[in-house]
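TL;DR need structure tokens for one chain.
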Amino acid sequence: MTSHGRAHGALIPGQTSIIQLAGWTMPEMALEMESGLQILWPTGGNRKTTIEELKQHLKEARLYDKARTLETESKSDNKPTMLIDPRYEAMRSYVRGEKPIFVESDTKQEIVDVLKFAEQEKLKIVLCGATDGWKVADKIKAANAAVIVGPSMRKPVEEYDTFDAPYANAGRLFEAGIKFCFRSDTASNSRNAPFEAAMAVAYGLPEKEGLRSVTLSSAEVLGVADRMGSLTVGKLANIIITDGSPLQPTTQIKGILIQGQPFQPESRQTRFYEKYKARLKK
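>> reply
TL;DR here they are.
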């Protein structure tokens, strides 16, 4: 349901959005414009310095939020008189713990550091990547943190890890009772998210949980399970009709509904397939 992986750039690249893959304009596609905040957990030699800078930024955001709250409570018209800072204004719901912060962290040490940081700062976090999650599953469970696993089709973090460690990671998280879902490594490979789950199924994750991880569990982790993720009365009718398990690469999609509206199950690839298949008949 999400496909954004670790990128190069700022410590806080920005906020995340939840979209549907239908609509002419951005407002039509956006289901939730500000669904979460993304943090790329620092690595390298200046890691400690960068973490201190992040703590300072959160401290300033909390002071700003307190000032804005006091101002709102003391005014009847709710019109702000203090200078509005867009950077801190965007942070208010995150420092309050009202919305999740998606933190990129792969190694065992990164995950442990993120969990400790979140506890100290009282943040609601979702671990992203978490290839080494199986090594510290007990700590993730104790912190009640959710995980967006992926990619699972990758090499192990450490040379001494077994070759199938990333494949079996999700199964270990499931056994520990951790809420998780899957992603691919990049937006261009988002179509492969079900196959990331399929690899985990091949290495220990129950098939039922594999399917749930790319449907209802994804919606739960992203905080939109009240609107999507399952065939339930009152939810958006986002449905695919297939001729087999969605986790199988050979499965064909026969029908698509987005918010109850039908769409042709075709793409540039399917059109090429039909074009060159017809050529063989000549």
